Amino acid sequence: MRRRLTWLLGGWLIGTASSVWLRRRVRRGVERYTPEHLRRELADQGTAMVRSVRRIAGEFSAATRDGRAEVGRTRSALDHEYGDRRRHRPLRSLR
Length: 95
What we know:
Blueprint: H1 2-33, H2 36-82
């Protein structure tokens, strides 16, 4: 059992170290051969994507606020129309 654990931990350690080394080597190669304007363009696209996600999130939260007010206004009309059928019953256990 001790040998298995030794080999397991040794393999894990070597695998982790080699993946970190390979990741660094690939990153350096990409930085070396990628033109500066391409790196700048990718950074600008990332910034634009973050801005658009923030804009969409702001619109969503505003719509949610407006929707809550509308639900409050229409809830009484729906309760009147559907009555008790609208309420949900909890599921019963089959045991």
